[in-house]
Amino acid sequence: MILSSELRLLKGNTQCVARSVCTSDITKEYIDSLRSNNRLIKYSSEKIDANAQANYVERISVSRRDVLIGFFRNRELLGTCGMQELSQDDLWAVGVLLFDKLPRGQGWGRALLWSSCVLMSEAQKAKRFVASTRTDNFAAQGAFRSIGFREITRDDTIAWIGCLASAIEDLDGVYAEGFISTDVPKIS
Ligand SMILES: CC(C)(COP(=O)(O)OP(=O)(O)OC[C@H]1O[C@@H](n2cnc3c(N)ncnc32)[C@H](O)[C@@H]1OP(=O)(O)O)[C@@H](O)C(=O)NCCC(=O)NCCS
Prior knowledge:
Layout: E1 5-11, E2 14-20, H1 28-36, H2 50-62, E3 66-73, E4 76-85, E5 91-98, H3 108-123, E6 128-134, H4 138-146, E7 150-154, E8 158-164, E9 174-181
Parallel strand pairs: 5-6
Antiparallel strand pairs: 1-2, 1-9, 2-3, 3-4, 4-5, 6-8, 7-8
Residues 37, 40-41, 95-98, 104-110, 131, 133, 137-140, 142-143, 146 line the site of coenzyme A.
């Protein structure tokens, strides 16, 4: 689906926007980041190149149960958050990717994840989120925990963490400036 609204926010003094990703947003660094993080995210069944990603984004835009949200600083795409509805009961699986060029540990991942969950709970009335991460992916677990996710269960390799949309925490240094409607029609 393409969300018909976007979230404008301030991270510190920096203006950012969270909105649906379009095929025209796919850049070389997007592809490079997907490739280099292939071990951590689940794109392994697809060939990772610009064409395959354009098809992937196109498929998502016509799906009712998938969304790909981009996090933009000015007009520059910094990372993406993919969500897929797992059941009819408003349970959304979340995966997040910050592009490689950004310094880690400065709150960009947290801002990307937070704005995506807030946007989905407002625009799509999503009520519950769940994510699975490798047990050794401490950065991802830290980012999810920092916005209110808590661990549900784990085995040797995978940790499951989840959150009610209503429990998404306010974050220091990240402020929603508000939702604005875009002219993008909702595809259903
Ligand atoms: C996961 C990811 C988005 C985190 O981005 P980031 O900008 O480095 O994280 P943040 O700076 O926003 O940190 C968020 C929290 O995680 C903690 N954290 C970050 N990296 C950490 C690490 N390596 N070990 C422990 N905690 C860590 C931070 O301390 C912070 O917690 P706090 O709010 O209590 O201070 C980024 O590393 C990424 O894109 N990784 C590759 C893709 C991936 O692993 N996706 C997960 C699959 S679902």
